Each structure stands twice: as structure tokens, then as C-alpha cells.
Amino acid sequence: MWFRRDLRLHDNPALAGAAGGDGHVVPLFVIDPRVWDHASDIRRTYLVRSLTALDESLSGNLVVRHGDPRTVVAAVASESRADSVHIATDFGPYGPSRDAAVEATLGVPLVRTGSPYAVAPGRVTKGDGTAYRVYTPFYRAWVQHGWRSPAKSVPTDWVSLRSEGIPAASCPIDLPAAGEAAALACWQEFRSDGVRDYSDRRNRPDLAGTSMLGHHLKWGEIHPRTILADLGDSDGEEVFRKEIAWREFYADVCHQRPDSIRVSLDRRYDTDFPWATGPETDARFEAWTQGLTGFPVVDAGMRQLRETGWMHNRVRMIVASFLVKDLHIPWQRGAAHFMSLLRDGDIASNAHGWQWTAGCGTDASPYYRVFNPVTQGLKFDPDGDYVRTYIPELRHIAGKSVHEPWTLLDGYAHDYPERILDHAAERNEALARFSAMKEMN
DNA sequence: TTTTGAGTTGTTCGA
DNA sequence: GTCGAACAACTCAAA
Is A331 a catalytic residue? Predict the structure, then answer.
């Protein structure tokens, strides 16, 4: 069993397939330097902890090898005299070609069972067999298609083999608990407590209203099918099911259009849109990454990302709108920054969330939808608690006025920056640049 | 083939 | 303060 992004023992069809013969399984994880060397400290540290948890649940039998999977997997298969190698299908942008290359060097069958999705990308299509490009009809068809019940566990004897050990990694951030047990506990807690009020509370960054399952789903510590099997039909559960479906929709879009993780689906945004460039823009981008724009909710979000490796979804939209529509910087630059820091960063969801904000993706946000950082802050962080949590310079300001510190007396916060731009002016500028792109025809 | 209705997440302005 | 309209036109999905 070659584990990749399915670091769990329950509801794991590929593992059940591996154990299906005589129950003897060699559990393998490959540290691929081409991936490992480019991952952030946060992601490496989280992975190390998840692998440690997996190894414990395997009674210390996880075989970790370092190197190119094309040689490593074949070597382990040969050493252990395996008669097949089992994986879950990887639908990421790089996985399929790597797996095909491994398959070519492997002397035994590479068996693909299951995927990280309830419905594998490419399975839900329109009547004419082509992929959906609009979410709502996709969602209806996805529900209609349905998914299997959670897979049964199969008795397994773990076969010991030389392991090079889980590598070391650390980061200065306090990460949440990793591993399958933590993932299931996280889901059970959310299911019993949070999902009921999810439709209202999910938009509030000052409350713990979201599931916090993103990083668990990313590494397959829990399968979405496990979650869906538990979900009923209350408002909160329905909205949460739709969030699971968004993850699957964007995976499906990326399966059809792998280049869309870096190329705008509406190509005019890459070729005709007059994006801002130059040293001034670079300085503003830097201010954005550091949480020093002078707009409290934007800065709180960017600092939450930097300090915790996570940002609330509502705030992701606010800071993304700020980058694309107030700073006129291409979405790809923001997407890359997010991926470098997010502990739950999913390549498909990230790229298409950004494309939605920029207005160039599937179901794109209308061009005139420009988030007002003050209005959004007042609406979704009504007491200002979120801002004060991440911006110590503003902690002495009580209540919602923390969203507009410039309305207070002079010297309200001498160590918090002035606004780096005039939002109303940049909103008009964004609309003008959109018109300019259209004129290019 | 043609037609029709619909499309995650907003803001501003004027009555 | 509240509320509806305007903000483009287009593409998509399905009948």
C-alpha cells in the first residue's frame, strides 16, 4: 500500500484492496524530494505529524523511503516480493503522470482504487458527456450520482521492512493535531455541535463557526464520504454538504482543465487586462502579505495566515478582492502566496477560489462585485473581536470602531499604518480597467 | 436547433 | 434608515 494523500486506515478502499489477498500489507510512504524540497515549513511539519500518527496506528511498521517514486516504489515492491501495489487515484495536476511513470518501472500491477473524493473527477457530466462549468447544476448532478457507503475495514497484518524514518521538520506556528484520530474527533465535534448553526456562523471570522476539517481532508486523514454518510438534511448540514461539493467541483474542473491552476479560464484576464506592475505595486504587494495595508480586516486576515497557517474563508475573499480589485494585481500572485502559507492549501480549491474573486473563473464573480473592506468587516466581525485578536496595535480600541480607526482622534494608533490607498478610488479604477480589457475586444 | 431561465459569497445610489 | 434598482453581457444547462 503506497500511501500518499490518504493517511488513514478507516474507509480506505485502496488499503482494503491491498489487504484483500492474504491480509499481508507493506505500508509505504515516499518522501519525494521534488515535492518535499518545495513545501513550506508548515506543510512539512504537518505532514511529519500526520505520518507519525499513521506510523503509530500501524504499530511502528510504516516504511518511509526517500527518493524518486519511480525507483523507490519498484525497489520496495521487489524487496517485499509484493504481487501488487495499491494506491488511491491522484487527480492532482502532477499525480497522474508520476503514477504512470511508476507503473512503467514497476514489475507488478499498480492497482488504483478510490480517490480523495466522494465522486471521482470526470464521473459527473452533463447529458452530452462534457464537464459542468457551473456549480449549481453540478451540485444537483453530483447529489443525484451519489457515492458509496464508507468502506469496511479489512483485517491486516503489517509487514515490517527497513524504513529510513520519518524526516524531521518544525515550524514556529502552533499547528492543530494531525492524524486520523484527530480528524475523526474534529468531525465528531463539529457534527455534534457546529454543523447545526453552520449556515449562519460560517461567515463569522470572530466565531469558531467553520469545520476546521480542511487540513484533514487535504491529507486524507478523513474521507469526504465518511462525512457525507453522517450528514442529514438540516439547513446547516445542507450548506456544509455544498461546501464539500465545492471541493469536488473544483477538483472536477481541474481534472478537465489542469492548466487552470495557473491560467485564467477567461483568457482575456491573462492577455488583455491592464494589471498594475512596477516597484510601487511590489511595495503594495509586500504590505498586503505583511498585513500592513491600513485596512484592519484585511491586515487581520493576512496576519492570521502568517501566524497560524490558516485564514477564515470569508476573510480569504476579502483579502483576495483587495489584492485583485484594489491593488490590481493578478490573482496568480495571491494564489501563490496563499499556497506557500496555508496548512490546508488545496491546489484546485485555491486556484479556483481566486479565479472566482478575480472574475475569470467558473461561475465567476461579476466584474462589479468589489468587496468594501470596511463594510465587510462591520458586517462579519460586528464587534471587532477578530481584528483585535490579530492586530495588537488596535487592541485598545473597543467595539466595532476598530474597523475604522481613522475616524478616531489623531494619534489613535501611531504604530498602525495609514491606509495605503483610497478604496472608493481604486474600486472605480478596477471598473475602468475592466472596461479597458473589454475595449481590447 | 432554438429558446429560456439562471447564475455562492456585493456595493452604491437615489427615492 | 430602508429598499429596490442598476451595475454587462455572456455562457451555461436543459427543455
Answer: yes
For CA atoms A300, A302, A306, A308, the dihedral sign is: positive
Q: What's the maximum distance between 2 C-alpha atoms anywhere in chain A?
A: 76
pTM exceeds cut of 0.85: yes
* Nucleic chain C contacts, protein chain A, residues 351-370, CB cut-off 7 A: 366-368
pLDDT score at A410:
65
Among the four given CATH numbers 3.40.640.10, 3.40.250.10, 1.25.40.80, 3.20.20.140, the one describing domain A117-150+181-256: 1.25.40.80
User: Is residue A313 flagged as an active site residue?
Assistant: yes
Å between CA of A250 and C1' of C14: 22
Please check whether the domain covering A268-440 is classified as CATH 1.10.579.10: yes
Catalytic residue among A246, A372, A404, A429: A246
pLDDT by residue (tens digit) across A263-322?
999 999 999 999 999 999 999 999 999 999 999 999 999 999 999 999 999 999 999 999
In whole angstroms, give the CA distance from residue A49 to residue A301: 26
Q: Is the pLDDT of residue A106 over 70?
A: yes
